């Protein structure tokens, strides 16, 4: 990574040389990069009927990032924002209507969903301990791209109907949001190119403000015509207030819904660590070690779930900021975390975010949910999964059919306890089992890895 560079183009590894004002601005840039996606997760979960708080989400994004940095010996310039991988789990818990979940209050359902997130985060810690004991190569043979890639694809495909449903409340506004995101991402330069989601939300929100003032309308969930925007919550919110924390609850059904998603999320983590390592020119998988970064991510996720926040994940958006700014000092990322914590103490700010029309969320979701599936495809392509091999073809086929076919999951009883396995949980279990049982396993983690490719973990 020591290429010849023009004078003045060397990366900055200690931001203090720039002075405090520039450091503060660089931290603000990282906050803007993560902000759009981080607050979008609770907005989408609220659309499923679960009252996940924007304030709590921002608080644990900041706290989780700071904790991750401590675990990673203050060396890794990563930000932990809200994970989109768990959206399918939230949607599944919201839709549960059997056993104890029949007629359950949405706030209580959210507590059980968060309990599943606590367990999912602990799976990171277990994987970290196993990696420390036996080495990363042996562990990753059970989680090759032929398993993780189709699971990631399914996460996006399962969420697609909600994107269409939200966008249908006002199609023209959803299209405006999509158009801004596409233009910013394809033709944008510099900072514009790395914050297309934020620009899509803000730009379409401004359009909605103008249209609302002119009397534009939308449709609600029941198909009734309503005003395009509702500011009643903003007027009733205080400028400063404590986050609405609560304690998670635990149940086998919600654990089986949320915990298996950790398999895909852990693969995303490993990919992000590879991408950040390639960007910065330091092998963070070796030093401070993948086990340390997994522990940081996992405990941050469990801590968030325990007190009412969503799962965390390392953000590729902030890796893009590293590439753009060439400032690799983790201190500027920690500044972004502090900004997130400060913003989390404003209910009025959260209410303004909540005033975003459902159609805008639908338009943004069109892009994001598709991108989740596309990342799964990229995971398969970059790792050169050989689908001429019937073994790999069978594993991927069974995962996809389980994920799409068992749309309502499977409910069974253990004594008096009703347990529901969602389609994603069934797909994950089937994929891991088939990969372990079928002969001809030829995947080798870490062999012939192409530098700089985030999803490239090995070869077949």
Defining traits:
6% strand, 63% helix, 19 helices, mainly alpha, disordered N terminus, 460 residues, two-stranded antiparallel ribbon
Determine the mean pLDDT.
Answer: 85
Total individual domains: 1
Strand order of the largest sheet: 1-4
Largest sheet: 2 strands, antiparallel
The percent range for helix content is: 55-70%
Structural class by helix and strand composition: mainly alpha
Low-confidence stretches: 1-8
Q: Could you spell the SSE succession in H and E letters?
A: HHEHHHHHHHEEHHHHEHHHHHEEHEE
Offer a quick outline of the entry.
The protein is built from 19 helices and eight strands.
Blueprint of the fold:
Layout: H1 20-47, H2 54-71, E1 80-82, H3 87-95, H4 106-134, H5 136-140, H6 145-167, H7 171-187, H8 191-194, H9 196-213, E2 217-219, E3 225-227, H10 232-235, H11 252-258, H12 261-280, H13 285-306, E4 312-314, H14 316-325, H15 330-343, H16 347-354, H17 358-382, H18 390-405, E5 410-414, E6 417-421, H19 423-437, E7 444-445, E8 458-459
Antiparallel strand pairs: 1-4, 2-3, 5-6, 7-8
């Amino acid at each position: 990574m020591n290429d010849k560079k023009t004078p003045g183009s060397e990366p900055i590894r200690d931001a203090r040389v720039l002075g405090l004002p520039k450091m503060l601005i660089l931290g603000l840039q990282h906050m803007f990069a993560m902000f759009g996606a981080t607050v979008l997760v609770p907005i989408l979960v609220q659309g499923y009927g679960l009252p996940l708080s924007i304030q709590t989400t921002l608080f644990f994004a900041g706290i989780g990032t700071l904790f991750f940095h401590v675990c990673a010996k203050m060396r890794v310039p990563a930000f932990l924002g809200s994970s989109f991988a768990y959206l399918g789990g939230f949607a599944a818990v919201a839709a549960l209507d059997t056993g104890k979940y029949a007629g359950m209050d949405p706030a209580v359902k959210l507590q059980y969903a968060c309990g599943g997130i606590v367990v999912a985060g602990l799976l990171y810690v277990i994987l970290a301990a196993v990696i420390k004991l036996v080495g990363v190569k042996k562990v990753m043979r059970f989680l090759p791209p032929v398993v993780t890639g189709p699971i990631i694809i399914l996460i996006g495909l399962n969420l697609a109907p909600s994107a269409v449903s939200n966008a249908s409340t006002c199609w023209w506004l959803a299209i405006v949001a999509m158009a801004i995101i596409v233009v910013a991402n394809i033709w944008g330069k510099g900072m514009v190119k790395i914050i297309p989601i934020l620009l899509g939300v803000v730009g379409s929100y401004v359009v909605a403000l103008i249209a609302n003032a002119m009397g534009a309308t939308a449709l609600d969930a029941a198909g009734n015509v309503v005003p395009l925007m509702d500011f009643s919550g903003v007027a009733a919110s205080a400028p400063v207030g404590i986050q609405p924390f609560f304690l998670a609850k635990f149940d086998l059904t919600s654990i089986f819904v949320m915990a298996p998603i950790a398999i895909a999320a852990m693969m995303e983590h490993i990919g992000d660590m590879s991408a950040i390592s390639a960007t910065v020119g330091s092998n963070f998988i070796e030093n401070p070690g993948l086990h340390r970064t997994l522990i940081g991510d996992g405990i941050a996720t469990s801590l968030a779930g325990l007190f009412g926040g969503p799962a965390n994940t390392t953000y590729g958006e902030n890796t893009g900021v590293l590439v753009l700014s060439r400032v690799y000092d983790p201190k500027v990322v920690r500044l972004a975390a502090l900004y997130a914590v400060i913003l989390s103490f404003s209910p009025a700010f959260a209410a303004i975010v909540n005033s975003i029309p459902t159609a805008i969320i639908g338009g943004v979701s069109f892009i994001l949910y598709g991108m989740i599936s596309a990342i799964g495809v990229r995971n398969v392509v970059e790792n050169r999964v050989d689908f001429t091999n019937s073994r790999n073809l069978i594993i991927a086929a069974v995962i996809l059919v389980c994920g799409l076919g068992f749309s309502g999951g499977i409910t069974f009883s253990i004594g008096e306890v009703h347990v529901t396995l969602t389609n994603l949980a069934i797909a994950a279990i089937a994929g891991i089992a088939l990969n372990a049982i079928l002969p001809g396993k030829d995947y080798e983690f870490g062999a012939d890895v192409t530098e700089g490719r985030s999803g490239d973990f090995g070869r077949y």
